[in-house]
């Protein structure tokens, strides 16, 4: 657990990393290359410290107070809601969470759904909640990768997955039947950091907000 | 809490669902471990003890005149692993002041919570004080359709300011209250923020809340804890449950509040004895986490002995404890060098080494060891630490 005054920011590996590093550089908090951070995982700047973690782990670091702030996709927050504050929509890393079915499937909108749908996904919580809201019984099969494969081999009726361009879906003979939600990168903050280190945290938030072109 | 006149009550770990249903919200009910008793009635392990205490105050203690001061301690459990700092069980100590309304009662409970946090040994702490009515007033005043209002509440409860911003952006009517909602997490600071907020609000409910907070703040300054109080008009809590002044206690370097409390004037009526009430709870496992992460000496004196020094050591231990110090008397005789390493292992601030009835060596970190008569060691130790 941290004890010093530097504000720590958890950054996600993967698709959001480069945009997140660009934002930090523009904000003047850090000048970091992906290689540098990839090598060290934790880098100290003059007013802040950056730590690099897996995207799905960002909320855990922030909720436990190991990081004051975090940059994370909204899709991750759907799956792991916690005690953090969601402060800013950073606008980058845009993608959609969609229900995709095989091209040949007769499934489309809600009126075409059978009494029980079988859906494979990496987002079981969001998927269950979305179908639940629509009064649709659903059997969620949780997979950890290559979700696109599941309907092709007859494991499920469709998948719920994230897509930016839809290309991977098309390549696997899938089409979008419904959109569950849109996701972009978000800036989140630990609840206690907001209260006990208000000035330091707010100043970093203001710099990031400005760098993201969202001055209000 | 005894010194403040709070009577200790014991409520059961297993409560009937019929009782808990009356006091808990849907989400809280969902998080309970439930099972059936031999008669087939559904019972549950309690997830908090304010509701059982309220039932006690309205039931068994019905004849006791109000205001009533009660305190309690015990384990609580939750099916949600993330609830109690990623454990399913925690130990809570709490107090409830039932039957008293107004700033004096609110300030009493906050001051008691502050003293309790102090008593746990946390050296640096902060108490955030806010008011549920400030939020209710704003929600009354903003001109929004009911469904949008509900969405605004949900976004705030989830601390999702991105969703909040997009909700409010989509509405044509802008007012000072809109701006206040968007700046919710930043509405905190010293007494000056009450003035700043007072200039922005245009509704009676929020105004009354700000005035009440100002009064509570004055009373806390009078009781000597003004310097740990931060006013937080943007405090986000369960607004359906809390009806007035709310507060949260934070220790250093812990990602969540150690203590939580506030006024809940609606609860007692559900058990048939309508009464205003306020109270708080401290999560003891979080406290021990704060203490473990700070490097404070937990033991004041390690008392080692050899030969005939045992009697002196035991007497010295009793004397030091009488002065409120934490002292450990060794269970076996040791040589001088061995005593030093034992001192290190115990992690005490002082080592007192008794060789005989009058031959005592006192060592403390960073100073030369000194030979002194035992009563002088006691006097110096007690004088230096008290």
CATH topology of the largest domain in chain B: BirA Bifunctional Protein, domain 2
- Number of spatially distinct domains of chain B: 3
Top-tier CATH class of the largest domain in chain A: Alpha Beta
Oligomeric state of the chains present here: heterodimer
Helicity range of chain B: 25-40%
What structural class do you assign from the helix and strand content of chain A? Answer: alpha/beta
Structural commentary:
- Chain A has nine helices and eleven strands.
- Chain A is an alpha/beta fold and 216 residues long.
- Chain A has two domains: 7-93 and 184-211, Periplasmic binding protein-like II (D-Maltodextrin-Binding Protein, domain 2, 3-Layer(aba) Sandwich); 95-182, D-Maltodextrin-Binding Protein, domain 2 (3-Layer(aba) Sandwich).
- Chain A has a six-stranded mixed β-sheet. Chain A has a five-stranded mixed β-sheet with strand order 8-7-9-6-10.
- Chain A is elongated.
- Chain A starts with 6 loop residues before the first strand and ends in a 5-residue tail after the last helix.
- With 386 residues, chain B is α+β, with helices and mostly antiparallel strands.
- Helices cover 39% and strands 23% of the residues of chain B.
- Chain B has helices spanning 17-23, 26-30, 50-58, 103-119, 132-141, 146-157, 161-169, 176-182, 192-200, 204-222, 284-293, 310-322, 336-346, 374-385, and strands at 7-8, 14-16, 34-36, 42-45, 68-77, 89-98, 126-131, 188-189, 229-232, 245-250, 259-263, 277-283, 299-305, 327-329, 348-354, 360-364, 370-372.
- A nine-stranded mixed β-sheet of chain B has the order 1-5-6-12-11-10-7-9-8, sandwiched between helices. Chain B has a five-stranded mixed β-sheet with strand order 14-13-15-16-17, with helices on both faces.
- In chain B, a hairpin with a 5-residue loop joins β3 (34-36) and β4.
- The chains are: A alpha/beta (216), B alpha+beta (386).
- Chain A binds chain B through residues 1-3, 62-66, 74, 81-89, 186, 190-196, 198, 202, 216, and chain B through 82, 86, 126, 128, 158-163, 165-166, 182, 185-186, 188, 230, 232, 248, 250, 252-257, 293.
């Amino acid at each position: 657990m941290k004890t010093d005054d530097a504000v720590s920011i958890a950054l996600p590996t993967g698709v959001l990393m480069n945009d997140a590093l660009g934002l930090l550089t523009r904000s003047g908090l850090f000048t970091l290359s992906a290689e540098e951070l990839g090598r060290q995982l934790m880098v100290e700047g003059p007013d802040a410290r950056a730590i690099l973690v897996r995207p799905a782990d960002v909320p855990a670091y922030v909720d436990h107070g190991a990081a004051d702030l975090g940059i994370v996709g909204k899709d991750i927050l759907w799956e792991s809601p916690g005690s953090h504050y969601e402060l800013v929509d950073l606008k980058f890393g845009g993608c959609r969470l969609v229900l995709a079915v095989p091209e040949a499937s007769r499934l489309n909108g809600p009126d075409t759904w059978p009494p029980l749908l079988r859906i494979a996904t990496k987002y079981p919580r969001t998927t269950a909640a979305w179908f639940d809201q629509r009064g649709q019984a659903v059997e969620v099969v949780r997979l950890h990768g290559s979700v696109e494969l599941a309907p092709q081999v007859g494991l499920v009726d469709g998948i719920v997955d994230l897509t930016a361009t839809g290309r991977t879906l098309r390549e696997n003979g899938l089409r979008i039947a419904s959109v569950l939600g849109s996701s972009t990168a978000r800036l989140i903050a630990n609840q206690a950091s907001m209260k006990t280190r208000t000035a330091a945290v707010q100043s970093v938030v203001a710099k990031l907000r400005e760098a993201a072109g969202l001055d209000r | 809490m005894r010194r403040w006149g709070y009577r200790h009550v014991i409520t059961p770990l297993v409560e009937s669902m019929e009782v808990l249903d009356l006091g808990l919200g849907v989400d809280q009910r969902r998080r309970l471990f439930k099972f059936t008793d031999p008669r087939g009635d559904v019972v549950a392990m309690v997830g908090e003890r304010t509701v059982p205490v309220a039932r006690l105050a309205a039931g068994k203690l019905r004849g006791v005149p109000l205001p009533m001061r009660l305190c309690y301690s015990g384990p609580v459990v939750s099916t949600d692993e993330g609830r109690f700092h990623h454990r399913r069980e925690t130990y809570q100590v709490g107090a409830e002041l039932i039957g008293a309304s107004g700033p004096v009662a609110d300030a009493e409970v906050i001051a008691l919570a502050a003293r309790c946090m102090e008593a746990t040994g946390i050296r640096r702490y902060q108490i955030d004080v806010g008011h549920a009515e400030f939020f209710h007033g704003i929600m009354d005043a903003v001109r929004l359709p009911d469904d949008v209002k509900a969405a605004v509440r949900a976004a705030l409860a989830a601390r999702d300011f991105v969703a909040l911003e997009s909700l409010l952006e989509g509405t044509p009517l802008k007012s000072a209250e809109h701006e206040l909602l968007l700046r919710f997490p930043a509405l905190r600071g010293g007494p000056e923020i009450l003035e700043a907020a007072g200039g922005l609000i245009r509704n009676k409910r929020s105004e009354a809340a700000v005035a009440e907070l100002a009064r509570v703040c004055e009373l806390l300054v009078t009781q000597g804890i003004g310097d740990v109080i931060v006013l937080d008009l943007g405090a986000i809590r369960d607004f359906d449950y809390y009806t007035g002044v709310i507060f949260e206690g934070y220790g250093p370097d812990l990602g969540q509040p150690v203590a939580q409390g506030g006024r809940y004037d609606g609860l007692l009526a559900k058990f048939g004895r309508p009464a205003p009430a306020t109270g708080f709870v401290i999560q003891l496992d979080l406290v021990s986490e704060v203490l473990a992460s700070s490097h404070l000496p937990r033991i004041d004196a390690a008392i080692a002995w050899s030969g005939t020094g045992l009697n002196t050591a035991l007497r010295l231990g009793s004397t030091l404890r009488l002065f409120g110090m934490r002292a450990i008397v060794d269970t076996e005789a040791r040589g001088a060098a061995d005593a030093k390493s034992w001192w290190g292992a115990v992690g005490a601030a002082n080592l007192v080494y008794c060789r005989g009835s009058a031959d005592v060596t006192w060592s403390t970190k960073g100073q030369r060891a000194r030979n002194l008569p035992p009563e002088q060691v006691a006097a110096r130790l007690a004088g230096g630490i008290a």
